[in-house]
Design brief:
Blueprint lengths: L2 E5 L2 E4 L4 E8 L7 E7 L6 E7 L5 E3 L7 E6 L4 E6 L8 E6 L2 E4 L2 E4 L8 E6 L1
Parallel strand pairs: 2-12
Antiparallel strand pairs: 1-3, 3-8, 4-5, 4-9, 5-6, 7-8, 9-12, 10-11
């Protein structure tokens, strides 16, 4: 069974940066898409970014394009999310999923492949 662990959250002033990491274990990830969703209080889960291990494709939600960058560490089955120019609207719990699918611009994560989440707070 896949095990997914996120880290790197914290509190940062508006305009600052954070880097999140997501480490997955329990199977190989050659043909999978891993990435991030977030959930702010009172809102639905929102897709943030994803990385496909087979072809290197990257995907971003509209609200983070140009500010966030997703990358991989293949030796550790880990994906990284570099978050720059953070805004208060980015405040949320960020969740990693190790098996993401999509139809067009709609992304969802497999129900057995979620991490525990890491809190990101942006203040001004």
């Amino acid at each position: 069974q896949v095990h997914v662990v996120e880290s790197g959250g914290g509190s940062v002033q508006a305009g600052g940066s954070l880097r999140l990491s997501c480490a997955a274990s329990g199977r190989t990830f050659n043909d999978y898409t891993m990435g991030w969703f977030r959930r702010a209080p009172g809102k639905e889960r929102e897709f943030v970014a994803a990385f496909n291990w087979s072809d290197g494709s990257t995907y971003y939600g509209d609200s983070v394009k140009g500010r966030f960058t997703i990358s991989r560490d293949s030796a550790k089955n880990t994906v990284l999310l570099q978050m720059n120019s953070l805004e208060p609207e980015d405040t949320a719990v960020y969740y990693c999923n190790a098996d993401i699918s999509n139809v067009g611009s709609y992304f969802w994560g497999d129900y057995e492949s979620w991490g525990q989440g890491t809190q990101v707070t942006v203040y001004s």
